[in-house]
């Protein structure tokens, strides 16, 4: 990611789960699922917020969602027409783009904007173990209710595994030590520092910020949602070709996170 792009993203206004633009985005995902009669869930930072009290919310710039969908760009745009219809009727302008490994809708109304993202996948890529993993995640999703809005969320165990995998990836790729104390404070101080730098932000800076905030999320999920040891062990099996089990344990131990 180019430095100018990273600087632009970090300056985008972040949102919390109870912001109207977020709840309306979640409802648009619900409508996609209902009209297409398909499974799926909210993931990422908004999924984490769904498990923790408001005072612990960490604002984020996007809503991640994942559908039980086999792939293909043209089919994705057709599949998500209900999102555009619903949000368009509420007065949002909507832009679609392919971005990195995701399909992205940028919505905007009255000077406020938000990103809604889904993983890109081709029909040939999404087969075998990948399809099996997604179906397992859908089977073990949780249904939460916030302000009268019910929606499906990726399980705490799956969220933590995704976070740990990114922590380890960035730590090894950019030679960054994984923190163990003052996580939230360190992350907030670093973000403030990066915001003051203009476009002078390196990939290592962004990697460090993501590591810090991912560590915060893992701690919060452990504290407020709990992590089931049996299901956590099941989830780890899908990642054995990418990450050794003892590496997951080393990060959890460093963060003083235990399994139930």
Keywords:
single chain; 260 residues; alpha+beta; 5-stranded mixed sheet; two-stranded antiparallel ribbon; 17% strand; globular
What report would you give on this structure?
This protein has 260 residues and is an alpha+beta fold. It is 52% helix and 17% strand. It has helices at residues 3-11, 20-36, 44-51, 73-79, 81-89, 129-139, 156-174, 183-195, 203-224, 229-237, 245-254, and strands at residues 40-43, 62-67, 93-99, 102-109, 112-119, 142-146, 149-153. A five-stranded mixed sheet has the order 1-2-5-4-3. Strands 6-7 form a two-stranded antiparallel ribbon. Helix 7 (156-174) packs antiparallel against helix 9 (203-224). It is globular and about 45 Å long. The N and C termini lie far apart (38 Å). Mean pLDDT is 92; it is low at 1-5.
Topology:
Blueprint: H1 3-11, H2 20-36, E1 40-43, H3 44-51, E2 62-67, H4 73-79, H5 81-89, E3 93-99, E4 102-109, E5 112-119, H6 129-139, E6 142-146, E7 149-153, H7 156-174, H8 183-195, H9 203-224, H10 229-237, H11 245-254
Parallel strand pairs: 2-5
Antiparallel strand pairs: 1-2, 3-4, 4-5, 6-7
Helix pairs in contact: 2-5, 7-9, 7-11, 8-9
Quick summary:
By secondary structure, the protein is of the alpha+beta class. It is 52% helix and 17% strand.
Query: What's the gyration radius in Å?
Result: 18 Å
Number of helices: 11
Helix/strand structural class: alpha+beta
- List the strand order in the largest sheet: 1-2-5-4-3
Query: Whole-number average pLDDT?
Result: 92
The SSE string, one letter per element, is HHEHEHHEEEHEEHHHHH
- Counting DSSP E segments of at least 2 residues, the number of strands comes to 7
Instruction: Give the % helix.
Output: 40-55%
Distance between the termini: 38 Å
Oligomer: single chain
Fraction in beta strands: 15-25%
> Uncertain spans, ≥5 residues at pLDDT below 50?
1-5
Overall, the morphology is: globular
* Main sheet attributes: strand count, strand direction, barrel closure: 5 strands, mixed
